[in-house]
Amino acid sequence: MAQRVVGRSRQVVPSPPVHPAAADATSTDHAPVRRSTAPARLVREHPWVASAAVAASVLVVGLLTSVVADGTVFGATALGLLRADGPVAGLAVPVWLAGAGAGAVVLAARHVRPLTVTVTLAALAVLSLALGGVLGVLGLCLAWSLRAVASQRTTRTAVVTAVVVLLVVTTAAVRWQVLGLAEVVAWGGAGPLASIGGPPVQDLEVPDFSAARRTWTVLLLAVLLALGVASGEVVKDRRRHARAVAERWAALARERDTGAALARQSERARIAREMHDVVAHNVSVMVALSDGALAALSRAPDRSREAMAEVSRTGREAIADMRSVLGALHGDDDRDPLDASTAPTSTDLRATVERFRAAGLDVGAEGLGTPLPSDTAARLAVVRIVGEALTNVLRHAPGARTTVRAHRDATTLRVEVVSTAGTRAADATGSRRGVVGMQERAALLGGRLDVGPLADGGWAVRLTLPTSPAALTTPAPAEERPS
């Protein structure tokens, strides 16, 4: 079932029934798509916004967690586990803050050199553990850098990098970390409790020193790194999907354009053959008349001479017109035209309407007695356009009520085929070649063809051709069925 996008919303609703030539006018221009959010558009247009947001989040988290780190140092010092004038007590919080600042700066280059940024952050993590005994927010920074690695490199590269980083930082934590997640949970509230007169810090329990206390730090780091890799894979999959969709629509657009070009070429070639048949026939007749006039020259020399001159002049004009039309149709393309079946060259508009009535189409007619151009090519174009429009009604809107109207004034011939909505299931397929062919015929004669839907769900094809009273021919009167 076809779909369309309503207004500016994302709601997708069924499209109305397909009407004449609607399938021919199909395109990918109105396919339902998911609209980007305002933040996504901002980041896409200004990539630095995303980097600034990540850096700001790292700094904010670093500042907030440094308060907890300061409380942890206070509790460990009060318990006598740390000397107040020792290096860890004096450097833990400054190193924590310095790590947050350095990580925010280094992350700015994560999309340009993701692997280099990851290695640099891992080195900063080892240095932070060696100097201050803390990891700080560098684990979070490593997660962000691994996200960039996973989104730009292969999954294997991202996983191997994450495992290596985890092993290196775990080794450094076991060797140098003093204040880890276990100490933060146990002593992080000592400072605030002491400041508000809470229980004495001497009541805090002293956990046994063991490398196993680093397990919580390692687990938290592993979770962060895994989340970074997973989110990067999601970004990569979305990018791959978007690229595939874009390539698909580009291929469809190329196919549509190629189909339209082939349709134009085919229609031009077919019209060229038809024009050749029509003009060649007229030229043959004129040549025969000219020969006859020349043969009777001795019996009626004056009239024969006039007839011969007129027929010869008309013949030369017909040949010139044929060459002009063929040149316009084929242009500079020397390739063989596409094969296309040539329909009968009847120029009887009334017979065309009756043929579709016999096929079961409910067709009303108004003005079928309107004089058509005396030029055979123009009459043929009118009949072919009406026939194509009625064919589209028969295919795409079965059961529709259709009216064919013809009208002329001093300078213009107007023909329109208007149909209502179909009442039965329609053939929704179409290549647009019928519409292209009708437009080509009208354009070659200096006219205009308007094709499109009506407000009530119907369809209209309106042809306008320039003409003059002298160029019109009046068909024999016949009974019309009113619409």
TrEMBL record:
<feature type="transmembrane region" description="Helical">
    <location>
        <begin position="88"/>
        <end position="109"/>
    </location>
</feature>
<dbReference type="GO" id="GO:0000155">
    <property type="term" value="F:phosphorelay sensor kinase activity"/>
</dbReference>
<keyword id="KW-0808">Transferase</keyword>
<feature type="domain" description="Signal transduction histidine kinase subgroup 3 dimerisation and phosphoacceptor">
    <location>
        <begin position="267"/>
        <end position="332"/>
    </location>
</feature>
<dbReference type="InterPro" id="IPR050482">
    <property type="entry name" value="Sensor_HK_TwoCompSys"/>
</dbReference>
<keyword id="KW-0067">ATP-binding</keyword>
<protein>
    <recommendedName>
        <fullName>histidine kinase</fullName>
        <ecNumber>2.7.13.3</ecNumber>
    </recommendedName>
</protein>
<feature type="transmembrane region" description="Helical">
    <location>
        <begin position="216"/>
        <end position="235"/>
    </location>
</feature>
<keyword id="KW-0547">Nucleotide-binding</keyword>
<dbReference type="GO" id="GO:0016020">
    <property type="term" value="C:membrane"/>
</dbReference>
<keyword id="KW-1133">Transmembrane helix</keyword>
<dbReference type="GO" id="GO:0046983">
    <property type="term" value="F:protein dimerization activity"/>
</dbReference>
<dbReference type="InterPro" id="IPR011712">
    <property type="entry name" value="Sig_transdc_His_kin_sub3_dim/P"/>
</dbReference>
<dbReference type="Pfam" id="PF07730">
    <property type="entry name" value="HisKA_3"/>
</dbReference>
<feature type="transmembrane region" description="Helical">
    <location>
        <begin position="48"/>
        <end position="81"/>
    </location>
</feature>
<feature type="transmembrane region" description="Helical">
    <location>
        <begin position="158"/>
        <end position="178"/>
    </location>
</feature>
<keyword id="KW-0472">Membrane</keyword>
<feature type="region of interest" description="Disordered">
    <location>
        <begin position="1"/>
        <end position="37"/>
    </location>
</feature>
<keyword id="KW-0597">Phosphoprotein</keyword>
<dbReference type="GO" id="GO:0005524">
    <property type="term" value="F:ATP binding"/>
</dbReference>
<feature type="transmembrane region" description="Helical">
    <location>
        <begin position="121"/>
        <end position="146"/>
    </location>
</feature>
<keyword id="KW-0812">Transmembrane</keyword>
<keyword id="KW-0418">Kinase</keyword>
<dbReference type="InterPro" id="IPR036890">
    <property type="entry name" value="HATPase_C_sf"/>
</dbReference>
<keyword id="KW-0902">Two-component regulatory system</keyword>
